[in-house]
Design goal:
Blueprint: E1 6-9, H1 19-31, H2 39-45, H3 51-59, H4 63-79, H5 90-99, E2 103-107, H6 112-119, E3 129-131, H7 144-153, E4 160-164, H8 167-176, E5 179-183, H9 190-194, E6 201-204, H10 210-214, E7 220-226, H11 232-236, H12 241-250, E8 253-256, E9 262-268, H13 273-287, H14 292-295, E10 304-309, H15 318-329, H16 334-343, E11 346-350, E12 353-358, H17 360-374, H18 379-391
Parallel strand pairs: 1-2, 1-4, 2-3, 4-5, 5-6
Antiparallel strand pairs: 7-9, 8-9, 10-12, 11-12
Helix pairs in contact: 1-4, 3-4, 12-13, 16-17, 16-18, 17-18
């Protein structure tokens, strides 16, 4: 099974070289009384962002003046004889991707009409969806343009590769959860791109090099978690919303056997192992009685779950286990609520398990009180001890 279903591309500096853009920008600037800019400055400070905004920022121009430069640039760029050349290997790579069943998307900061007029000059560039700068409320580096492209292609961004040459491309792709390929063909060189490096990003000098990444197989690591059958509905949630949220926030796939309660958590190799551990913890938390709202606190930094097996601390009989549970829960849940308040944790008692969610030192405080209650200590003595310990803590 292929790991990816689509490859999304920036256009300028990724598929097409920037020479024609640089010349058109300078012609528009000169026409409006500004000095000619170096190729380096245009590439570094003007390409990849909405042109009118960069004119205002770099030249202290008014909105009206900036719009005039932009209008002149569009006319010059679209009507000049010279056009940017397609980079070597682009035509062949796009053809090969389509033959292999990949969807192709173009995501650019250019206005949609400009991008469509521009791309018409290049019949070699065939695509399934194009997102322009005015198709979304926010532009790159915000992930919204990439997310919209994926939505139109009916895929998850994690099932796509985003290829671009600019810092905003890299950040947008990573923010969306894509695998990112940063090209050295446009604005940034390899050294500059290395400063942005992430485990989900690779740097390439030639577009043909992306094929080996696109064709990667979806190798999986599996972890099975057993949950009570009565809690399967809570893990799935209304219309599958809880299951979907677990998958999207932790980058895993859940397979739930409604007959046995077996929940298989699958993680693709190369994806974050820390996130898959969080997925396991969330599934366990919901399985052991926490609401999804409380279980999703495990996505927060420094928040963990501790599970106490009652049978390991008492006689493994229903009578004794029920006795222990009664001591921890208390009348109308009063004891559990008191323990939560003193330790600033969340506590659930389900089956033979007592589960605690919180920061490590707070979990340890709650656990201390719970174990003392299991051993038969009076409630008042346990509360007093926890209060004394808490007074010594900064929280």
């Amino acid at each position: 099974m292929k790991r990816y279903k689509a490859v999304l591309f920036d256009i300028d500096g990724t598929l097409i070289n920037l020479d024609a853009i640089v010349k058109a920008v300078n012609k528009a600037l000169i026409k409006n009384g500004y000095e000619k800019q170096t190729e380096k400055r245009i590439k570094k400070e003007m390409i990849g962002y909405p042109l009118e905004k960069t004119i205002i920022k770099l030249f202290d121009a008014s909105e009206e003046e900036a719009e005039k430069v932009k209008k002149d640039y569009n006319e010059i760029y679209l009507n000049q004889d010279e056009k940017g050349e397609i980079y070597p290997g682009v035509k062949e790579t796009l053809e090969e991707l389509r033959k292999k069943g990949f969807k192709i998307g173009l995501v650019t900061t250019k206005m949609r009409s400009e991008a469509l007029s521009d791309i018409e000059k290049y019949p070699e560039i065939k695509y399934d969806v194009l997102i322009g700068g005015d198709d979304t409320d926010k532009n790159k580096p915000h992930p919204e343009p990439i997310e919209k492209a994926c939505e139109m292609l009916k895929i998850n961004p994690k099932e796509s590769i985003y290829v671009g040459d600019h810092e905003v491309d890299v950040k947008a792709g990573l923010n969306a959860g894509c695998r990112v390929i940063a090209m050295t063909t446009g604005v940034h060189n390899r050294e500059e791109l290395e400063e942005l490096e992430s485990e989900d990003m690779e740097i390439k000098d030639n577009i043909e090099e992306i094929m080996s990444i696109a064709l990667e197989e979806a190798e999986e690591i599996e972890k099975e978690v057993k949950v009570p059958k009565k809690r399967i509905g809570a893990i799935i949630g209304k219309k599958g919303e809880t299951k979907k949220r677990i998958e999207e926030t932790t980058d895993v796939k859940l397979e739930i056997d409604s007959k046995t309660g077996d929940t298989t958590i699958k993680r693709y190799l190369g994806r974050s192992p820390e996130k898959s551990i969080r997925a396991i913890d969330i599934v366990k938390a919901i399985g052991y009685g926490f609401s999804p709202r409380k279980a999703f606190k495990l996505l927060e930094p420094k928040i963990y779950i501790e599970i106490i097996d009652i049978s390991e601390h008492s006689k493994d009989s229903n009578k004794d286990i029920n006795r222990v549970k009664s001591r921890i829960i208390g009348k109308k849940g009063k004891t559990r609520k008191t323990l939560e308040k003193l330790s600033k944790t969340h506590i659930s008692v389900k089956g033979k398990k007592i589960s605690i969610i919180g920061e490590i030192d707070k979990i340890n405080l709650a656990k201390r009180g719970i174990l003392k209650l299991i051993q038969g200590a009076p409630h008042s003595a346990v509360y007093k001890e926890l209060e004394e310990i808490r007074r010594q803590k900064p929280w």
